[in-house]
UniProtKB/TrEMBL annotation:
The lineage of its organism: Bacteria, Bacillati, Bacillota, Bacilli, Bacillales. This is tRNA (guanine-N(1)-)-methyltransferase. InterPro entries: Alpha/beta_knot_MTases (IPR029028), tRNA_m1G_MeTrfase_C_sf (IPR023148), tRNA_m1G_MeTrfase_TrmD (IPR002649), tRNA_m1G_MTases_N (IPR029026), tRNA_MeTrfase_TRMD/TRM10 (IPR016009). SUPFAM superfamilies: alpha/beta knot. Specifically methylates guanosine-37 in various tRNAs. It is an enzyme of class 2 (transferase).
Amino acid sequence: MRVDVLTLFPEMLDGVFRTSILGKAQEKGIISLHTVNFRDYSGNKHGTVDDTPYGGGGGMVLKPEPIFAAVEDLLEKAGNQAKPRVILMCPQGETFSQKKAEELAKEEHLIFVCGHYEGYDERIREHLITDELSIGDYVLTGGELPAAVVIDAVSRLLPGVLGNETSAVTDSFSTGLLEYPHYTRPVEFRGWKVPDMLLSGHHANIEAWRREQALKRTLERRPDLLDEVELTDRDRKTLEKLRRLKDTDGGLE
C-alpha cells in the first residue's frame, strides 16, 4: 500500500512514520508512507495557499489550486494504478471506526489531505475528495494528528505488519466488542493474582472465559456497541446473566 499525506507541516509526521510498527512495515516493504508539502504547488512566489473567505468572516480558507495540483501530480505519477481514495481529515466528516479502517486497508493507494486555518474551499470537498473523516467531536490545530491515527489503524491490518497475526483480529472493536483483560508473569503481584482459568491450560474454557469477559467489559463501558455486534445464543444468555448481576448487586464484579 502507498500512502501520501498532503500537509503544510511534513515534519509533524516524519517521526511517526519512522518508528514502531509503521517504521517496521516500511522496512518490510508492506507500506510506503510519503508526505507532500502542498505549499510547493501554490503557483506563486510567496507560496500562498490560503485566502480570506468570500462573504467575510474570521480566519483563512485553503485555496483549491494547490491541493488540486498536488493530488493530480500524485495521480499522474501513480500511472495506471487503481484510483486512490482521497481522504479529507475534517471535523465534519464521518467518525472513524474499526470498520472504516478495515475498508481502507483493502485499498492500494490512499491520499490524505490535512488542512489548517479556518477550513477548505468547498470545491475541494465537492470535486476532489472521496471520503471525509473525523476522529472525534473536538477541534485540533490541523489534520496531521488525525491522519496519523487513521494511518496507524489501517496499517496494522495489512498482512505481515504485525508480528502476531491474531493481534489485529482480537483487538478491541475488531470483533465488535471491547477486548478481554490480559495478564502475564508474575502469577501474583502485590497480592493480586492471575485468574485461575488462564492457568488451567484448557484452551476451550479459556476462550469461553475471554468471550464472557469481553461481553462483560463491553456491557460495562460501551453498551452501545452491543446493538451492532453479531451475538450467538450463548452470548445472549451470558449478557442476560450479567445484566441480572448488575441489577442485583449494582455492579458486575
